[in-house]
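My hope is that you will study the record closing this message with an eye to the fold:
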Amino acid sequence: MAQDDNSGKDLAAEDSSAHIAAPGASAGTAVVSSDAVKNPGLPPHRKRVTDLDPKKQKHAERTVFTLFYLSIAGSIWAVAAYMLFPIDPSDLGSVRLNNLFIGIGIALALLALGIGAVHWGKALMADHESIDVRHPVRGTEETRSRAVEIFDEANQESGFGRRSMIRNTLIGALIAFPLPAVALFRGLAPEGKDTEPVALLNQTMWKKGLRLTRDPDGTPIKASDVTFGSAFHVIPEGLSEIPHSEGMLEEKAKAIVLLMRLQPEDLHEKEDRKSWSYDGIVAYSKVCTHVGCPVALYEQRTHHLLCPCHQSQFDVTNHCEVIFGPAARPLPQLPIAVDDEGYLVAQSDFHEPVGPSFWERH
């Protein structure tokens, strides 16, 4: 028993000595000794098959510029498909064919361009590790000269200046790739004669005697229906009866109006426009003069109209003058009156083009 007691004391002494040898160490603290594992460094560089075999390098080069050629072909095909497979609004099958073939062309152009660029970098560009030392401030003239040398070295390593087929096909693919987008966006513009934007936006469906109706059901609006502080979304009479295929959406986009009623004494009207309103009821185009968003938010207390897209604000009491935001001019006012039955009617069309101001620039 005495021996067991002594051995227990010896173990306790060893434990205490261990704590003394590593001051500040706890039961969960690892003590790093001097023989820690050293950094093994990078593994030996393995050359690619294109670095070892000139035939493989040539094959990779042909693959890259072939992919760039395919990208050019895809871009050209997308433009051709846009013309060969036009959309017929009455035939959904034409929409599917148009989207399918244009999509195939754009997908081929983008994928071939991306895969070719990746394969070029992996198989042909210089394959070695390097360290790029960066300076926090602009360098000296010697440093800038060295930068030019680095660009030259990059050119040599990538082979951009030396491999003319890859360079030329890459440039061709990059030039051809945006062409489908140009063709598609061009199709959004009106076609044929008399398509100058200012002329198109200067003429809407509104004309003398045409009744103001609710959007979208086309119910005519009486002056007595418009209470103080109210706002009505308005379209011309007969617009809701026009089929979509005959341009109903285009006409509505130009002719939409917001109708409001204020106290007559709150309106600060110009002398030549006092006849454009009726007993405090005014009508203004809903098409914002910034980029054409619908101005549909009416603040009753301040009599301000707000465009939700870019926060342009218009003062209804002062002919919808711009009081805030990027819009460049007031909203066009629609002259209104009341017919024999008490319905609100237009006196004429707008006296200026509706929509964004940039259409008026020549």
Notes: Residues 49-129+143-186 form one domain.
